[in-house]
Amino acid sequence: MKKKRVTILGSTGSIGSSALDVARALGDRFDIVGLAALDEVDLMAGQIDEFSPGVVALADEASAARLSEIRGKETRVLAGADGVRAVAAENVDIVLSAVVGGAGLLPTIEAINAGNNIALANKEALVMAGPIVTSLAREKGVVIIPVDSEHSAIFQCLGPAPPRSVEKLILTASGGPFFRMGLEELSRVTPEEALAHPVWSMGPKISIDSATLMNKGLEVIEATWFFDISPDDIDVVIHPQSVVHSMVQFVDGSVLAQLSIPDMKIPIQYALTYPERVGGGCSRIDFPELGELTFEEPPRDRFPALDLAFGAARAKGTLPAVMNAANEVAVNAFLRGMVKFTGIVEVVSKTMAGHDVVAEPNLEQILEADAWARRKAGELVDRGW
């Protein structure tokens, strides 16, 4: 059996680490060709020792220089954003794009330009530049396979179904740790509390986004481009057990759902082995022990991020990129104690309100909107918005 050649962008993060767990479990199926991350020298050095990639990159140039001193002989060590993009452009069978935030957009585009199939965990690539990314993928004959558990579920449920047979996509959300709290309680939430997700083990940015429901909003925008569907045909429901990962409702009233235990290694493995399914080390659902599956309406009055995202999805243009950038700034400010938990969405909302939307932007205009939103959100944070 020929091994798949794989590059992992964001290899030291939560998704990247889980992907390497999959590679360990299915070692006869994958050859790890390239790795890229931000600045984690020791973690990357260990990954080099274990997987022997031909090339790696750290976006932080000082960290890359340190890594090169200790691991720069058998493995090429590249530095900076250009280095990450160069790793993405290496010729492989599939690139797992798992860099967190807007920083993942250009490496994803670079990988597509090189003709590499994409396992997409970086939702911001489609949130910021959905028309550009999907059009380029079609032009290059590249397959983009979703890694987010929700989009993976929809991808699996849709199968070969013709688009006209789909009535609605239903994204499930765990609700995070606070969805039953009132506004007064929410205003007192600490970063430590927000990072303690009750079901999933995720990185800090995604954990905070899950707590505000912004993560689900980003997934709504992502779904419009992944599946070429209007945001008006997407619903969100709270499903605390996180066993039903999303559903597709068809025009005849049938609903297909994908279920599994909440373990990101399952959709990661599916994306990397697609179109095959192979055995792995993940646990199975014990339905009698599970007992029940419950679903609720999201509390939009207390979690306005969801409606902001639906509004951005309908507006299109540069507004989704602005929303995403402002959210990254606001989340970082919350983690540093500069804004309250409820202030995250307030900063995002005020930034979006001050933006003049470009309806059909090119990549340069999207990046300009991203930079503008980061400056604007930073100003709002500095002056207490």
| Strand segment tally | 11
Neighbour order of strands in the largest sheet: 4-3-2-1-5-6-7
Describe the global form. Answer: globular
The figure for the number of domains is: 2
Largest sheet: 7 strands, parallel
Q: Main traits of this protein?
A:
single chain; 385 residues; alpha/beta; Rossmann fold; seven-stranded parallel β-sheet; four-stranded mixed β-sheet; 17 helices; 15% strand
3D architecture notes:
With about 375 residues, the protein is of the alpha/beta class. The protein has two domains: about 5-145, NAD(P)-binding Rossmann-like Domain (Rossmann fold, 3-Layer(aba) Sandwich), CATH 3.40.50; about 150-315, no CATH class. The chain contains 17 helices and eleven strands. It has helices spanning about 15-25, 40-50, 60-70, 80-90, 105-115, 125-140, 150-160, 185, 190-195, 205-210, 215-225, 265-275, 285-290, 305-315, 320-335, 345-355, 365-380, and strands at about 5-10, 30-35, 55-60, 75-80, 95, 115-120, 145, 165-175, 235-240, 245-250, 255-260. It has a seven-stranded parallel sheet with strand order 4-3-2-1-5-6-7, sandwiched between helices. About 45% of the residues are buried.
